[in-house]
Each structure stands twice: as C-alpha cells, then as structure tokens.
Write a structure and sequence with these properties.
With 247 residues, this protein is α/β, with parallel strands linked by helices. It has two domains: 149 residues, TPP-binding domain (Rossmann fold, 3-Layer(aba) Sandwich); 76 residues, SIR2/SIRT2 'Small Domain' (2-Layer Sandwich). A six-stranded parallel β-sheet has the order 3-2-1-7-8-9, with helices on both faces. It has a three-stranded antiparallel β-sheet with strand order 5-4-6. Helix 7 packs parallel to helix 8. The protein is elongated and about 55 Å long.
C-alpha cells in the first residue's frame, strides 16, 4: 500500500532505544550498543542475577548514577511524534524506553504507555517501599554501594521491568488495545526481539493496520511491514510525519 500515509485513522507508535540514540543514549543491540560492546552489561538487566549478586547490584547502581540519560534532551524524532499528536491524529506511544524523553518533548503523558517502567523511581522487591531515583543515588554517592531498603532491609531496584519480570498487566492491555485499534503502526528504533512488546506489530497487522518499521538493523517483523526505513531515525521520522500531515 504505497499510499499508506493517506490513512486517516488512529496511529500507534512503538518506540525503542534507537529513537534516543541521537539524544546521546546508546542503544543495546546495535553495532555500538551497550550489550554489544560489553556483553556482561546485559546481566545488569536480568532480575534473578540482580537479586542474587551483590557485586552486580553495586555495578548497577554505578551505571544508574552515570547513565547518560540524565543529561539527554529530546531530539527531532521525539519532537516529530509531538507534532503528530498535536495535529489531532489520535496518536498513542508505546515505549520500551525508560528515559521519559517523549514526555519531556511534549507528548501527553496520558498517551505514553511505559511498558518497561521508568528510571526515575525506585522500588523494594520485598515490601511496598518506593522512593525517587535521585534520593537513592544520593545514598550511593554518600558511600552506600548497594543501598538496602530503609524499611525492611530488602533489595532496591529501579522501577523498570528487568529480564525475568512480567510486564505490568494494565500497561500491556493498554498497549495491545492501541495496537489493535490503529490504522498505522510505527515501530521506531526497536530491534523487535523482546516479547511481548514485539508481538504488538503482529497484533496491529492482524487487525488491519499498516506496519511501518524505522530501524537501522533488520527485525523479525520486516516481512509484515508495508515499508521498512533504514535511514537515521532523526531524519526519517520527521519526513514520515510530514507525509502523514501533508494530506
């Protein structure tokens, strides 16, 4: 369907790490990704390993403190999605990212579904204690390499979904609904290798949506896509948004 951009219904966008690389945040699986260059770093995102290994938790807290996302700013790709939303296109963003750059760019927080949580909160795995990441990193800077929960002594972690943890059921339901009611489904900067997020592409296509993939590397869902774009996301996405708004 070469005229896919003329469809006027709802739009859903699934965004992954690739949309934030122009903001200075490395992706994970790309040629220069965090896990590509340091395979051990992937262990930091594995729940069971994190719980079992205090040394790994210490490294995790250092990585959180030094995360380039703290200094990152939204880039033209984030801003293009804001433009699409403000044009009244019924956009819902389902993001695998935890950096909140969509909201900082101006996307309506009610229209951004964070299926992997966000990096700004901290939770205890043993009780209901929650706090801010900033407060916990202050403890790390003060000398607590692996700060325990102040209420139960349990393990603290960022309020993000790690490998081995189930996604929030409500967030996944909202994401599925967005995919199944969209006429255009954009998969942007995601390897589409992590389920169940990647399966949203299949759900959208099965419900009649046009799938457009914008990613530097091949994905398992390329064969379902009407168009696959390999251009840099910071230039490709604004161009695609201009197409959709030009009618």
């Amino acid at each position: 369907m070469s005229d896919w951009h003329e469809r006027t219904g709802r739009i859903a966008a699934l965004t992954g790490a690739g949309i934030s690389t122009d903001s200075g945040i490395p992706d994970f699986r790309g040629p220069r990704g965090v896990w590509t260059e340091d395979p051990v770093a992937e262990l930091l995102s594995t729940y069971d390993n994190y719980l079992a290994d205090p040394a790994l938790r210490e490294r995790s807290w250092q990585a959180r403190r030094d995360n380039p996302a703290w200094a990152a700013e939204p880039n033209p790709a984030h801003l293009a999605l804001v433009e699409l939303e403000r044009a009244g296109r019924g956009l819902t963003i389902v993001t695998q990212n935890v950096d909140r750059l969509h909201q900082r760019a101006g996307s309506d927080p009610q229209r951004v579904i964070e299926i992997h949580g966000n990096m700004f909160g901290v939770v205890c795995v043993g009780c209901a204690y929650t706090t801010s990441m900033a407060a916990t990193l202050d403890r790390v800077s003060a000398g607590e390499a692996d700060p325990p929960c102040p209420e139960c002594g349990g393990v603290l972690k960022a309020d993000v979904i790690m490998f081995g943890q189930a996604l929030d059921h409500r967030a996944l339901l909202k994401a599925s609904l967005a995919a199944e009611t969209a006429e255009i489904f954009l998969a942007i900067g995601t390897s589409l290798q992590v389920e169940p997020a990647a399966s949203l592409c299949g759900r959208a296509v099965a419900a009649g949506a046009t799938l457009i993939i914008v990613n530097a590397e091949p994905t398992p869902y390329d064969s379902l896509a009407t168009e696959v774009v390999r251009e840099p996301i910071g230039t490709a996405l604004p161009r695609l948004v201009d197409l959709m708004l030009a009618r």
